[in-house]
Amino acid sequence: MAATTDWQQLIADKRSDREFKIHKEWRLPASLLSTISQNSNISVLDVPRKSGILTERELELTEVYDATELVKMMLQSEVTSYELTLAFCKRAAIAQQLVNCLSEIFFDDALNRARECDEFLKLNGKGMGPLHGLPISLKDSFNVKGVHTTIGYVSFLSHPPAAHNSALVEILFQQGAVLYCKTNLPQTMMSADSDNNVFGRTLNPNKLSLTAGGSTGGEAALLKMRGSVLGVATDIAGSIRIPALCNGIIGFKPTAGRIPFAGKTPPGRLGSPSSIVPVIGPEGHSIRDMELFMKTVIDSEPWNFDEGAIAVPWRTIAPIARRLKFAIIEKDPKFPLHPPIQRAMHHAMDALAKAGHHMTVLDDMMIYDSAVLAWKFFLLDPKKTPVGFINASGEPWVPSIETCTFPELADWKPTLDDLFDMNVQRRRIMKRYHDLMVRFEFDAILMPAYQATAVPHDTYGVPIYTVLANLLDYPAACLPFSKANKDQDKNSVMDDVTYVPPYVADAVEGMPCAIQLMGKPMKDEELLQIMEVVQKVLET
Amino acid sequence: MAATTDWQQLIADKRSDREFKIHKEWRLPASLLSTISQNSNISVLDVPRKSGILTERELELTEVYDATELVKMMLQSEVTSYELTLAFCKRAAIAQQLVNCLSEIFFDDALNRARECDEFLKLNGKGMGPLHGLPISLKDSFNVKGVHTTIGYVSFLSHPPAAHNSALVEILFQQGAVLYCKTNLPQTMMSADSDNNVFGRTLNPNKLSLTAGGSTGGEAALLKMRGSVLGVATDIAGSIRIPALCNGIIGFKPTAGRIPFAGKTPPGRLGSPSSIVPVIGPEGHSIRDMELFMKTVIDSEPWNFDEGAIAVPWRTIAPIARRLKFAIIEKDPKFPLHPPIQRAMHHAMDALAKAGHHMTVLDDMMIYDSAVLAWKFFLLDPKKTPVGFINASGEPWVPSIETCTFPELADWKPTLDDLFDMNVQRRRIMKRYHDLMVRFEFDAILMPAYQATAVPHDTYGVPIYTVLANLLDYPAACLPFSKANKDQDKNSVMDDVTYVPPYVADAVEGMPCAIQLMGKPMKDEELLQIMEVVQKVLET
């Protein structure tokens, strides 16, 4: 009991600290806040516009432009970094009150930094770098000097503030970025519900009763609220793409090693021999912003900041004008597509075919088996380090954790022998995909990012459609496309399948759908151009 | 006993097959062959010239040019591939009789292939590729369709000939190469003596009583005999560089994944979770030939042949004109440098400093600890698969195997927990090297490749000076420089150290010495240019 009281007091203090960092003038009225709960099925996307907290100009700055445009505007002195940062701090504060998307808030540091950027531009007649003056938000697991990193573990509340920046944070600062907040994530970072005892649960701004996804869910919810224009996420099983799908933004997971991973706070044990490694990538509003992030970081030679980053330059390639060859993975029979997603997939396939691109449906692509294998790689630690991090404080497990595993692994105890066999099995799957990609000269694979839209809290389950790209180490992106519409979707309902999780048309009405594109390893540059082609086709 | 008789008969048959593949006219006289033994301290380097088996023209073709020049000569019709291949077949046959460097011989296939190359050139007015008509030799572990791959295991004699080419072999053929023989290696490939029960022991052509090194020892001995102009080797602890040092040729170990490894016959278990992976690289006579190999293979997009090859283009960079910054690792105190190597190192350091390059000596660089850690990665397989391959035939262990391990690992039984800790330890070493390379902007590390020249058979021991580059995954090369000279070396003899293995001046008199250069990961291109700079300085 003592331990319980302790942890509850600790989180109460932490949350009160966080609340204190939101200026009084930026607080929403109690009458509005009383309508906010994880059971409410309202959208809060229009609240910032209606709140009266942002000026017309601030609404325009946060809603109309992408990051690429905003940097250009700053360099042309059409807007200052201070003005822009203030607008995003305000809007992030509003988002926080509505969907609980922030973990750490450091608006004051950001505003000081923004002033520095403005001074720099004035003095030097040029910006600090390709991210000059740009407010960027990031997942809580990144270390920012002087800011806490708890990643939602109560036991990490006793850690001192970060003494060093993560390698990537160092690079972002060097290239001119303004960091103003970190965002919420799931306990252990291994669930698709961004819920933990320290910060609580992030809600989906499109519909509060649905999950914001995870593990980079706070980030995606903040982006959807336009409380950020560019966010930094991580992905080992879908953690960039799942929240992108759930909220309706773009998420890009690069090939492993291209963005430096060093100096983050890990949710588990260091030194894992897993063949699947976590990667960092951007979430945001435009494909060219994804490229802005990738190119800027890689042009900074991240291999000089991180011994694990791969020293390969960014290749700027021309837009693609030719017809593309797409492999299609429609579904895994164990996880049939919910009608809105099925409709989005078919619509995308039809539109691309009509635009002259080649579409080839692949069968038996081992989606489910790949996911089970991937999960084994995630469960290798005999010491079960995350369990120790939880138990150290006495905090309980959050509900979604138990939904994120496979029944066949319940009693599995990994051994070194297993690991040899797992690597052989992984290599066989890699070879199958590789040989098809080469033989048929596919440019990319089009597939769902998940069998459904965002689903009710704690029901997401295992992300079999995203973890495949992690197992293969293929770059992969989630592109928003179409919306759930029960009238149009009813023709896609299949009576002979069991939807997991259940499909309830009314519960997800209007929710964003998405498609997923997987490119070829180290061809991140090409995948971004392919995304541009696809987006253009789908927009028309 | 039955098993013993069996395996002895099997190898007798195999060796007789091999002998049969050497034309009668290419056989050396019995009187000469009677002087050949592993106890003889003679050099056989001049035998091809004296044997009368090669014409003057063939001597010139095999002795005077490097691979780059020979391809140019073929494209200009100054020599045919047939003429060149015949010359190298003859000379390889002579080498085989003297130092036992070949495992598989397929001269007839090679001569047919050479005729095809000549026809192609005549018909098309251009070559097949950058390796047009060039005879290339390779280590036995590569699979060449229709040729056996035993890698020296008696139990593998029952395997059928290879049904498929290794990924690299496929590329070499596509680019115009002529393959004519495979070369000898150690039992299990984990020793520095290229000795196994199937093919016997390869001797060092500079001095038969000394080791040819391993594991790519047959290749390096063949190259030193100029029975090959360009050879393909592999390296997980020094197997490219050790034989390069022992014989006095150039060996280049690239960053892992740049040359495709798929489709080779492994000496152990597939699926190892080791963080150290084997790599393929060239051995030969000129630095530009190393680049010819690297560029040709990588320009062929090896990632389309092997799901494990990294999709990163070759960068052709300009020769380096500026002053370079070298970090120096002089020695590990446990393995003091033999006088000839100490002299070579100091001579190289002095010459480079005199030429204006910056030299910084690094201390406590964890050479020995890194090697012990690396060995743990090599010993991860709980099934001890190589032991099974040996026991399957009843063949005995060759003597050198027991010298190639660390006493502290005698009773070590690896666990998954160990592997996590090993990865953390490896990362710590990587970070130390990385941070020094970045902070001081070093271009390369200059260090010994081994504490000695080639040593008497079965005394080489553990290769602590080469395995470091494998642990770090830094590209590394061995450049021949200086020769043992007891008069000059006597000033370098230290009375207060124990040389391991012992230093016997007379036994190694005249033997080639070498230096090792380690570059930065994925900067293989830069390392080749740095080698050019160093070679130019050392030649003057």
Oligomer: homodimer
Strand order of the largest sheet of chain A: 1-3-2-6-8-7-12-13-11-9-10
In the CATH scheme, the class of the largest domain in chain A would be Alpha Beta
Mean pLDDT of chain A: 97
Q: What is the radius of gyration of chain A computed over CA atoms, rounded to a whole number of angstroms?
A: 22 Å
Number of domains of chain A: 2
CATH topology of the largest domain in chain A: Amidase signature (AS) enzymes
| The CATH architecture of the largest domain in chain A | Alpha-Beta Complex
Rough outline of chain A: globular
The count of strands of chain A amounts to 13
| Head-to-tail CA distance between termini of chain A | 60 Å
Written account of the structure:
Chains A, B: Keywords: Hydrolase. The structure is a homodimer of 540-residue chains. Chain A has 540 residues and is α/β, with parallel strands linked by helices. The first copy, chain A, folds into 2 domains: 2-33 and 40-304, Alpha-Beta Complex (Amidase signature (AS) enzymes); 325-539, Alpha-Beta Complex (Amidase signature (AS) enzymes). Helices cover 39% and strands 11% of the residues of chain A. Chain A has 19 helices and 13 strands. The first copy, chain A, has helices at residues 2-20, 30-33, 47-51, 56-63, 67-75, 81-99, 107-124, 167-174, 217-224, 241-247, 287-299, 339-354, 367-378, 385-391, 416-439, 464-472, 486-489, 505-508, 524-539, and strands spanning 102-105, 135-139, 178-183, 195-196, 200-201, 230-235, 250-253, 279-284, 325-328, 358-361, 444-447, 476-483, 512-518. In chain A, 58% of the residues are buried. The model of chain A has no long low-confidence stretch (mean pLDDT 97). At the A-B interface, helix 15 of A face helix 15 of B.
